[in-house]
Write a structure and sequence with these properties.
This protein is mainly alpha-helical. The chain has a domain at 223-369. It has 17 helices and no strands. Helix 7 packs parallel to helix 9 (176-191) and helix 13 packs across helix 14 (299-308).
């Protein structure tokens, strides 16, 4: 009955609003159509809706081009809804030990992350797919299936290039075989367009990808939806050298903290869960084009915090729950137009997720997870 209710709700949501949205998905469908025809993928005249993913992603999306756009939209919405359920289930399953009831963990996670899930579905984005691939890779590591983990992480890189963050972690914690497997899979992924574009065409595609990413970064830093460290500094201090330097320093500190967390993970059973969740949470903060809805990848982090919150120092526990409440309740319908605009303009959500990062690090330093 619960499953039928969920299916009905998603169907009504799609028919009522989303079928006329999913603008990002249209970009993928267009890129897939171009890839099938061996046409250029990266075009300046696409404007704001440029394709900014690796060429291999366009090839992977090629089956979408075989059906009309409305049909492809409906199919992708159904897949995304299934991926949402899968991400929630995997996040609970990832916990080293379950200390809270499943209903409570799911309830907290949904309240905190619901607005990101909704935005993802409306845009027709692929962050749910990315997150499921990464969390599945983390699960594979837990079961010592390192070659499978390497393949899943590289698949995540194809979907979203910032998945590259997981490859050094895999190599550091799993050794040469895992590193070699990841490198081989990455080479195959990068070379895949040769089938349709040839060697020179594939090289041109990757140059086009870099052009599309690099030229669109600076103009998007002060976009209200940009929650990256670079965007946060640009909003507060303007687009200046000092803002960029400060963002780089904070980003470096976050990476150093992540490295410390990983080094402290030796001899901790199920260490992969917290480390993987931390790296996922860092992605929107470190990527200069980190949009707010990308924070849905922090779903495992929220589940971990909800599960182990009583193991935190009392002051940090209070701050953490305030941060999570701010994240979950910072929606237009609650704040109203003016407050919501100010909230996004100053990127308040960015320091809230920095609290999440600090909380995960504290749990590790206390050797809780």
């Amino acid at each position: 009955m619960l499953g039928l209710t969920a299916v009905t709700a998603f169907a009504l949501l799609y028919l009522g609003r989303i079928s006329n949205e999913m603008r990002d998905f249209e970009v993928y469908w267009t890129a897939a159509s171009r890839a099938v025809a061996s046409e250029p993928l990266y075009r300046a005249d696409d404007g704001h809706f440029q394709f900014k993913y690796l060429p291999a992603f366009a090839l992977a999306a090629a089956p979408l081009a075989a059906v009309p756009l409305p049909v492809a939209k409906a199919a992708w919405f159904a897949v995304s809804a299934a991926l949402l359920v899968a991400l929630l289930a995997l996040s609970i399953r990832l916990l080293p030990t379950r200390r809270r009831p499943v209903w409570l963990l799911l309830g907290v996670t949904l309240v905190v992350m619901a607005k990101f899930f909704g935005h993802e579905l409306v845009l027709g984005q692929v962050n749910l797919l990315f997150a499921v691939l990464v969390v599945s890779g983390i699960q594979a590591m837990r079961h010592e299936r390192d070659v499978m983990a390497a393949g899943l992480f590289v698949a995540a890189v194809v979907v979203k290039p910032y998945g590259i963050l997981f490859l050094p972690w895999l190599a550091l914690t799993r050794g040469r075989v895992a590193a070699a497997s990841a490198m081989l899979a990455l080479i195959v992924a990068l070379a895949a367009p040769v089938v349709l574009y040839g060697i020179n065409g594939t090289m041109a595609l990757h140059r086009g990808w870099w052009w599309a990413v690099s030229t669109s970064t600076a103009p998007n830093l002060t976009n209200p939806d940009n929650v990256s460290m670079a965007g946060w500094m640009a909003k507060w201090f303007g687009e200046s050298r000092n803002a960029s330097l400060t963002a780089a320093m904070i980003s470096g500190a976050l990476l150093a903290l992540a490295s410390l967390v990983i080094l402290q993970g030796r001899d901790i059973k199920g260490r992969e869960a917290l480390e993987g969740a931390l790296l996922l949470t860092l992605i929107p903060l470190l990527s200069p084009q980190g949009w707010d809805y990308v924070f849905l990848v922090a779903t495992p982090a929220v589940a971990i915090i909800a599960n182990y919150d009583d193991r935190l120092p009392a002051p940090l526990r209070i701050v953490t729950w305030l941060a999570l409440a701010t994240i979950g309740l910072s929606i237009y319908d609650v704040l109203g137009r003016r407050l919501y605009a100010q909230f996004m303009a100053f990127s308040i959500i960015t320091p809230c997720f920095m609290v999440v990062v600090a909380t995960l690090a504290t749990l590790r330093l206390r050797r809780v997870a």
